[in-house]
Amino acid sequence: MSLATAIKLGDPTQLPSRRDEDWRWTDLRGLIRQIPPSAEWAEVGEGGPFAAIEAEEFVVSNGHIEGWNAVVSEGPADIARLRVVATEASSNPATVFVTVRAGTSLLLLETYEALADGALTNVALEVEVQAGGRLERVVLAADGPDSVTVSTAKVALGEGAIFAQTVLTSGARRQRLETQVAHPGAFASVRMDGAYLLADKRHADITTVVTHQGVDGTTEQLVKGVVNDQARGVFQGRIVVAHGADRTDARMGHHALILSDKAEVDAKPELLINADDVACAHGNTVGALDEEAIFYARQRGIPEAEARAMLTLAFVEEVIDRIGHDGAREIARAWAHRQLGASDGL
Questions:
Q1: Is the pTM of this model over 0.85?
Q2: Does 297 score more than 80 pLDDT?
Q3: 54: buried, middle or exposed (CB in 10 Å: 19+, 13-18, 0-12)?
Q4: Which residues contact 240 (CB under 8 A, 6 or more apart)?
Q5: Which of 16, 149, 171, 177 gives the lowest tally of CB atoms within 10 Å of its CB?
Q6: Residue 345: what pLDDT?
């Protein structure tokens, strides 16, 4: 069962639900009673959250793609903006192909912009990073509070390829941002980070699966979250080391702050190791702000609200600081300031 199938058939019973293990914290069937109608392509103009960075722009409008077939890197420092925009309360599944050719580099600035209440967005990305290629993917999901978004990226890496990803989200009514990586080993490397900053009743689900299929591969993952009010954050991270994938080095960390008694974080980090000669570890923590640190700041004349905001921002910025591109990193930092500054009690 999947959202794409439900949209195609117009049948909500095909939606994933809490009975599906990988979807138990992001129930769509219990939320969506009727599949919205299909909408037409709509002009949205150039821009989006990464408008300040000069780049070629590709737009998915209401699930439609016009004027282009795929995002393909050609040189050593290509930049592309991929904007997924919903202007109506509608549904259309879309598939986007991204190819990073051997020896080239691409910065993919990917945004989700739901501009209408009730928008149902479903996007699949098929990504290939060929031998020696480099892809940095920065995702900023700025959906509306009443929208539903499901994005699934399947990434295939070649020998010696580099894949770096940072997913940033403020959540939606329901939102799932999933990445599946086929890791060949072969001195390819993966960095897969994320940050969710949630308030009100927003929901965000960051799900990742990295499958190491050969020797000498590395994966490093850091995801951090902040939830306030009645928000819910979900992290599901799985690293699989196949038989024979020796000398794999894989490390995963998820850490979250809960700032309200009614907020919730559900985390499920997993390591599935089927090889012996590996170095793998994972860590998971969920807690509150350090009251002693807040007291220390207040003793030095910093108001409590400002002290809480400073500590929360410092907690999240560890993820943002790992973004490789200077311009994207500064836009991400400004986004974090806005999100944390807008939340009551921060």
A1: yes
A2: no
A3: exposed
A4: 209, 210, 211, 212, 272, 274
A5: 16
A6: 40
Supply the mean pLDDT for the chain: 93
Residue in 197, 189, 161, 192 with CA at minimum distance from that of residue 179:
192
Amino acid at 129: V
- Give me 234's structure tokens: 């979900």
Contact 176, 147 (CB under 8 A): no
C-alpha–C-alpha distance, residues 58 and 26, integer Å: 29
Task: Tell me the backbone φ, ψ of residue 295, rounded to 5 degrees.
Answer: -60, -40
Angle between helices 304-320 and 326-341 (to 10 degrees): 150
> Strand, helix or coil at 219?
strand
The three-state secondary structure class of 130 is coil
The arithmetic mean of pLDDT across residues 242-271, rounded, is: 96
Backbone φ and ψ for 94, nearest 5 degrees, come out as -135, 150
The CA distance from 160 to 86, in Å, is 37
- Which residues, listed in sequence order, are joined to residue 108 by a DSSP beta bridge? 80, 137
Query: Regarding beta strands 120-129 and 105-114, do their DSSP bridges make them parallel or antiparallel, or are they unpaired?
Result: unpaired
Confidence band, pLDDT 50/70/90 cuts, at residue 342: very low
Tokens 């850490």 correspond to what residue?
Answer: 255
**pLDDT tens column, 41-57:** 999 988 899 999 999 99
Does the structure show a pLDDT above 60 at 299? Answer: yes
Query: Nearest-CA neighbor of 248 among 195, 167, 186, 293?
Result: 186
Query: Residue holding tokens 């921060």?
Result: 346
Residues 149-161 have pLDDT tens digits of 999 999 999 999 9
